[in-house]
Amino acid sequence: MADIKFEIKQTIGTLSESPKGWKKELNLISWNDKEPKYDLRDWDSEHKKMGKGVTLNAEELKKLRDLLNCIEL
Amino acid sequence: MADIKFEIKQTIGTLSESPKGWKKELNLISWNDKEPKYDLRDWDSEHKKMGKGVTLNAEELKKLRDLLNCIEL
Fold first, then answer.
1. How close B5 comes to chain A (CA, Å)?
2. Of the N and C termini of chain B, which has fewer Cβ atoms inside 10 Å?
3. Are B69 and A73 in contact (CB under 8 A)?
4. What is the CA radius of gyration of chain A?
5. Which domains does chain B carry?
6. DSSP class of residue B21?
7. Where in the numbering of this chain does the Transcriptional coactivator p15 (PC4) C-terminal domain appear (chains A, B) (predicted)?
8. What is the DSSP letter of A20?
């Protein structure tokens, strides 16, 4: 992971925080200088270490929003 | 990954499908016989191979829904 270049363009929000300070966040991130994508993953408090996650484009995020609005949570 | 036991309890929806047939899905999955969690990741067409992803509990998914309803997509 060490050599992946990334830049967090926008922090959209935090979903949760663990006792150790890791946060599950939705961000807009540019990976390796490419076009920014939405990204859902865990981060340490300094945004230096990251956990596994998924990247999503706007279309996928819209479908996710529509799904979440249809189910009982 | 081969020895992780999982059971897809419910397929909530598909966000996208790649030309090779991989789908980005939101599922309710029990990992290693534990309590099912919401799970967002890529799967091959037979649900045998999986990509990286995130698991979320209901609270995190609610926050995600609320976030997605607040932003312009």
1. 18
2. N
3. no
4. 13
5. 6-69 (2.30.31.70)
6. S
7. 19-66
8. T
